[in-house]
Amino acid sequence: MEPLQALRKIFQEAGELSSADELLHLIVTRVKQATHSDVCSIYLADENKQDWVLVATEGLSDSAIGQVRMHTGEGLVGYICQQQSILNLKNGATHPNYRYFPETGEEHFAGFLGVPIISFRKLIGVLVIQSLSVRCFNAEEEAFLITISAQLAGPLKTTLNQEKLSAISTDENTEQLKVQGIKGAPGISIGKVFFLPPFKELTTVKDAPCVNEEFEITLFNKALEAVKLEIQTSGDKLASSVSQNVHALFGVYLMMLDNDMIVRETETRIRTGLSAASALKQTIESHAQAFDQMEDSYLRARAEDVRHLGARIYAKINTHDTSIDIPDEPFILLAKNLSITEIADFSDSQLVGIVCMEGSSLSHTAVLANALGVTAVMGIGDISRKKVEQQTAVMDGYRAQIIFNAGEAMQKEYKRLISQENILVKGLEKLKNLPAETSDHHRVNLYANTGLLADISPGLERGAEGVGLYRSEIPFMLHDTFPTEDEQTHIYRKVLEAYTPNPVYMRTLDIGGDKTLPYFGFTEENPYLGWRGIRFTLDNNSIFLTQIRALLKANMSTENLKIMLPMVSRVEEVDSFLSLLKQAIIQLKSEGLNVSRPSVGIMIEVPSAMMILKHLARRVDFISIGSNDLTQYLLAVDRNNPKVSALYNVLNPAVISSINHIAKEAHRYRLKVSLCGEMASDPAAVILLLGMGIDTLSMSAFNIPKVKWIIRTISHKQAKKLLVKVLTQEKEECIRKLLEEELNKAGLSALIRAGN
Ligand code: PEP
Ligand code: MG
């Protein structure tokens, strides 16, 4: 046996499989081969029955699958589960825990080696090899089995999450199936699942010769024009219900289709003798693969777009129809990938939820779902269509969870939550023009975050008193090149005018990390510790200067601009910015424009900034806590990394005491403090932030009414008292419990779920 080679081969093959069945079969077959043993079997936890069940074997009788079961502590497998350690026996039958199962036909097997399969500290099963001869498996074999079990625990767990154990051996699946995804758009929804079949993959097209060049070129061009028209129509359909930014996404598609290279390259390939479909396949794949190889998530998401467009054109060439009858009842659309044009086609139907097997919160699908107020969960991984189609599912967009085949009780619970939420939203409308003031007259400003996930109008409609965070990178991300000074001025002015005379805190370009520009790609080993925010803009100072000039010009008639700097980690960055600002003002004045100097502030997102507040305070007019990044840097947790994202928690004692420290320090230096991360809309956290005396909370506009309700219900005195108590706590769960008890006492229990 060449263990490394065998391991590599197994992983390579495992990557191509999507069902648990196939994966289990592959493991037992390949491990038996590689170890030259006579049997390889896998036992997994059956959580419903609380025992361990044989789910795959190569060497024992097939009829034993699903039949051989044992409790923890029972038999050799049960013994391994109890001890959570390896068992290597010369002759299994001599062990006191040995139990004979006639179904397996295993009386001939003597040598036994069993290894626990553990994923994220949890035992999920046991991998066993056996031999006919009486012998101990050697150290190399033991190491091989341990490695296989450690490496395959993750993929196995993921696959099993999607296919309940009972479904592996039975075929039918009416069991509830809870799947965790990535947050797309918030909300709670319930509906029948409809699967939208993907357009036939272009990659499946076989290379075929072209019979008539001109005919194929016309065929391709006609298909292209038809797709363009469809996209234009879908965009127009949504023009009145979504923001300009979101509408611009349709422009991105059209721009891709207008790309001369795609047309020219395809036509050239046809002229070299390929059919329209084959030529299109080669062109699309070469463009998509270029995006695939980019490190950052935004650009990789564009590969999806290119492939989707290719598939749509191919569908026209091939007159392939993928439409479904739009159901006349609330429904959840499930697809591998959904394009924005496909969602647009359902915009006036009863679409209540979107679930994508691929994609992330940066996908355009998520952007559009947010704008339309449709719950969305992204990236749930492959799921078997036959097990969920036409079944009722419930979605929790706040937690990025979906429960397929939801039972009566589950549906009832979710219906209750939906109606509770509706009542809540209706009841909160009357708060729109009331101040966010506690019962003992402590006033807090509630501002809206705008940009990727929000818009100008939802904030105004919900009584936002200003914009606390304008993410200026969003218009940059939706453009195909750096927007010009005039284009930027125009965009910024629109936001400033919409909110005048209220303040608008515009953050300068914050790219890097998970936010990258489609036309300015760069790869970094550690993007979150790399060229981000102000580091990037200072190093590209002509881009920075253009943005500062555009901000100043946009502010000329409204004078409500505040400039905010992202990712500041040292005083030199603020000094450099201030001299650029000075330079921009001098330039514009010399051009005859009477611009004024706006207030300047920084975001506190990096722990070092928190520790040098004293020095920073002398240079700026305000600070705003970016709790999203601050939490990630304080706890050293990348929240987009599923392996560690459970450790990301804004109620961590370190996070709370840091924010408390920042608020105290800032007030000591007479600076106003705002907080503009997700934490500002977590009801439990809001009580603490109130207690700390944070002056402004800025959040997605949809959350403003709820947060106002909390503030108007609780007294400042109560909040301060609770903060003192919370600061003595050691654990996140105790803190959450304390805060939820307080929300309950105050009659705010309806808010608990949405905040978690
Ligand atoms: C933050 O880090 O909390 C923040 C508001 O910035 P962003 O989420 O845009 O990185
Ligand atoms: Mg940030």
Task: Describe, in plain words, how this protein is organized in 3D.
The chain is an alpha/beta fold and 756 residues long. Helix content is 46%, strand content 16%. It has an eight-stranded mixed sheet with strand order 7-14-13-9-10-11-12-8. The chain has an eight-stranded parallel β-barrel with strand order 15-16-17-18-19-20-21-22. The longest helix is centred in the first third of the chain and has 26 residues. The two termini are 50 Å apart. About 1% of the residues have low confidence. The site of phosphoenolpyruvate has 10 residues, from strand 16 and helix 23.
How would the blueprint of this fold be written?
Layout: H1 3-15, H2 20-35, E1 39-46, E2 51-58, E3 69-70, H3 75-83, E4 87-89, E5 111-119, E6 122-131, H4 139-162, H5 165-169, E7 177-180, E8 182-185, E9 188-195, H6 213-238, H7 244-258, H8 260-271, H9 276-292, H10 297-317, E10 331-335, H11 340-345, E11 351-356, H12 364-372, E12 375-378, H13 385-388, E13 392-396, E14 401-404, H14 408-428, E15 445-450, H15 456-461, E16 467-471, H16 473-477, H17 485-499, E17 504-507, H18 533-539, H19 541-554, E18 561-565, H20 571-590, E19 599-604, H21 607-611, H22 613-617, E20 622-625, H23 627-635, H24 653-668, E21 672-675, H25 683-692, E22 696-700, H26 704-713, H27 716-726, H28 732-745, H29 752-755
Parallel strand pairs: 9-10, 10-11, 11-12, 15-16, 15-22, 16-17, 17-18, 18-19, 19-20, 20-21, 21-22
Antiparallel strand pairs: 1-2, 1-6, 2-3, 4-5, 5-6, 7-14, 8-12, 9-13, 13-14
